[in-house]
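Shift notes (night). Ran tRNA-2-methylthio-N(6)-dimethylallyladenosine synthase while the centrifuge was going.
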Amino acid sequence: MTEQTTPAHGENSRKVFIKTYGCQMNVYDSTRMSDALARDGYVQTEEMAEADLVLLNTCHIREKAAEKVYSQLGRLRDLKAARNREGREFMIGVAGCVAQAEGEEIMRRVPAVDVVVGPQTYHRLPEALSRARAGDRVVETDYAIEDKFEHLPKTDAARTRARGVTAFLTVQEGCDKFCTFCVVPYTRGSEVSRPLAQIIDEAKRLVDGGVREVTLLGQNVNAWRAEGPDGREWGLGDLLYRLADIPGLERLRYTTSHPRDMDDRLIEAHADLRKLMPYLHLPIQSGSDRILKAMNRRHTADDYLRLIDRIRSVRPDIAMSGDFITGFPGETDADFEATMDVVRAVKYAAAFSFKYSSRPGTPGADMPDHVAEEVKAERLERLQSLLIEQQAAFNQSCVGKTVSLLLEKPGRFPGQLIGRSPWLQSVNVDAKGVEIGDIIPVRITGTGPNSLYADMVLELS
Ligand code: 5AD
Ligand code: SF4
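Came back to this:
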């Protein structure tokens, strides 16, 4: 009997393999689920073959992302059958946004799935697993009244240290903007901000675990609002000023922002805070006012361009990044050209662009004049070649400059380390006398397809 309860690899602990799809918030949620499972004796493995529990942390944003989940579940069903024949436990869990949107459907379509937990209920995962072990199939997707963060174990310094010198920290979740293409208001719920004290505590813990750079996360991160110690309502700008006071926390970033929530205090933070990196991900989605209106973005292309001018006037070295959708319903050639014009005006350092994907339940799905797939694809290709050109030009403009680099991990060759520039570029450097976690000045010497090359220098010029 002992053979049936003890994994075949001969260790007492159970192993969990977590596969994360989608955005950075899912990456963060996966770390928190891993911490919660660790309390139950689960050790995380990078090998699916040796896992006793496979957890898919899923993304629902586009049709393709959601489809991937079902094909992966098909493979897991077969793996589970094989494991069960050997008399070994093998559980399948689905978390994230597909779980939230289609929990019951997942259970119906894939009987091998044991538990489903949503983005707001994953603190209940350990309990759901023990109920599943007792024979239940558990779906936990009701929006919990309790705050999951209050119920999750705090990440200890050793686990943080094992994850590296940069970390994500969710400060805000959900969305009240209701862009007509987007499922997020339905999967992640309405905008909720974490309280200030919780965020400061987590940031300090990360620093105690060796983290030097924190990226604040939220679907609408710049809509973060909470009561400050002065009794006033604080916004993201105030939060950044406060976090910049934490000794040892050297770099701050935040993502993703909505143009309508870029307030004066946040722009001031970009001007003042040396620790706030000069990089801003600010999606516009389309450059056509007609399409922006149909998307319910509640700003024009000109509002967006003027906002960037204001930010650049206080922080001239800021690098811009954005998200774009081609082929939203009703998009004409002229509308698409307006998007290309915005891209030419802004000159992006990085960007993400997608073909419109019709999502059931969103207003866009019911709009007339859906654009043919090949037209969406053609526009996407033109847009992406312009964006790639701009990214290459931006990288090229860094050659010869001395920049600060946060050393993150070993490089491909002995003696080489890979670090991150203030503009989120990955940079290879031959490093002597320095270690991971150090922030050092380097001179950029060249560019490669996915990263830059640099030499160490003694001082920032
Ligand atoms: N189709 C295509 N892209 C989408 N995005 C969100 N919803 C859709 C959709 N239905 C893109 C937007 C958003 C990013 C996270 O994903 O550009 O900013
Ligand atoms: Fe995917 Fe959006 Fe959910 Fe992130 S929030 S996991 S991108 S659907």
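The longest helix spans residues 373-398. The longest strand covers residues 402-410.
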